[in-house]
Each structure stands twice: as structure tokens, then as C-alpha cells.
Amino acid sequence: MLPGISTEQLRSRLNRMVADGLLTRQRYREVPPRVDYELTERSRELMPVVGALARWGYDWTWSAPRPGEDVNVGAVFRLAPGLIEPPAGMEGTVDLVVESEGEGEGEERRYRLTASQGRVEISESAPSEGASAVVAGNQEAWVRALGPEGASDGLAISGNRGLAEALLRGFTAAAAARRAA
Question: Core-most of 12, 80, 87, 141, by most CB within 10 Å?
């Protein structure tokens, strides 16, 4: 659930996005009921715009979280298709794992970045095998790595380190270039 929005408001907005052709909706016959939404090709065309806005945010507004402020690491990961332009010929998959903080703190969250043909795609709930590389860390380590300094020293990288580091740099490249200038 999103803070500040009621279930009915969220349902209404999602239904409108389905009606406008921005999302597809898949309902599963399970108990409890489950519904998945996925971006359509039409909405994927907006990724360069979303990426440009995210780069602007990195350049001008990103700072260390203030006390009590939460950074949604998954939301940052979902910007990857608009933010990251892999170098020519770079292909492979990198699993991004946000480790649980401890007992009762929730499960780990997994995301898979796939670099292919000069583009990056992201999927959630990545399988635990088959990736070219795996990057894992807790929430705090990810916030530091995705922040303006790009400090990835708190993350554990296994597998194809070059691929993993190149994709991670894509999140903060614009901010780093502006600082260097």
C-alpha cells in the first residue's frame, strides 16, 4: 500500500491507467485474491521522459535521507530502463537483492536488471539462479550506493563484477558527471 492514498483511490487510478492503455491487469484465482499490473509498450515509451526527470532529481535534489525519511529502493530500481544506458555490446543479467534487516523485518526483495541491445529492462521477484551477477546489501547499503556518492562498499557483488558495476554506475552517472564538472 502507498502511504497517503486509500485503497479505493489506488484502485480507481490503476483502473484508469488500464483503461488508458498504460497498464495491463492480470487477476489470479487465488485465496487471497491477487492482481498483477504490468506496463504496456505504450507506457514503456515514457521511460526516457521518466529517466530524464530522475536524472534531474539526482543532479539537483538528491541528498542523504533526513531523520525519519524513507527511501524506496525498489522505486529507484524501477527507474533503471530510463536511467541506465549500458555500453555497446554489454549484455547480461544482474540480480539486485535487498536483504531483510533481521527477524520479523520482512523478506528479502529481488529485482533483475537485464541489459540487452543497448537497453535495460527490470523485473521484480527475480529467480535466485541464472544471473550473470548478484549484488546484495541491506536497505542502508543500497541507499548509500544509489545516492549521489555511489558508495557501493556496503554491497556484496558476486559473478560478473564488471557488468554489475557498470549497471550500478548508471544510476548515479549524471550526478557524478555534474560533480566532476
Answer: 80
